[in-house]
Design goal:
about 180 residues, Hypothetical Protein Ta1238, Chain: A, two-stranded antiparallel sheet, 2 strands, about 60% helix
Length: about 180
């Protein structure tokens, strides 16, 4: 099948499992924001020097693909989506991000003071993580702003994206420290 189907030329597109919506539909906008976050993390992944941070980026990207699927299938197709073998966010995904955030935050005994200044330390990886954090916040707003009939069934995506933005801020600090070593 060709990637060029021309089915979207009139301003509509296919969602997963057969639904069609206008390209301005809020669910499609949320999928697009999550897709952009995945791309931003892919770029950061290339430049990050810390293996620890890179592993978390890889895990997040896997969960973002799952989230895009969940959003694209929508709550009306959630059972079918799962029955077809597609996975949602990893079980315990919010708790796992919280655990990593706590671990990383505890690794900075002096804590943090003031605002971070992306790029201040000169590392491309940390600056790209900061950009991904900003995209993550936008994706979070798009997901939580969905009308109730378009919200994912379990309510986890909003909390997961919120925690992911925390993790990305901390990941930039870990990456800056790695760069200094």
């Amino acid at each position: 099948m060709s990637i060029t189907t021309k089915r979207g030329d009139a301003g509509e597109t296919d969602l997963l499992l057969g639904s069609r919506v206008g390209k301005s539909h809020p669910r499609l906008a949320a999928v697009g924001e999550v897709d952009e976050l995945n791309a931003a993390l892919g770029l950061a992944r290339v430049f990050v020097g810390s293996a620890e941070v890179r592993a978390e980026v890889v895990r997040a990207q896997g969960n973002l693909v799952a989230l895009m699927g969940m959003l694209s299938a929508g709550p009306e197709q959630a059972e079918r989506y799962t029955a077809m073998g597609f996975k949602g966010l990893e079980t315990g995904a919010v708790e796992e991000l919280t655990r990593v955030c706590t671990e990383w935050e505890d690794s900075f005994p002096g804590g943090f003071k003031g605002w971070s200044m992306p790029g201040e330390k000169g590392g491309a990886g940390a600056a790209m993580l900061e950009m991904a954090r900003c995209v993550c916040r936008r994706a979070e707003r798009a997901v939580i702003s969905l009308p109730s009939q378009d919200q994912p069934v379990d309510g986890v995506p909003g909390a997961w994206l919120n925690r992911l933005s925390d993790l990305l801020w901390l990941a930039a600090r870990v990456e800056e420290r790695h760069q200094e070593e």
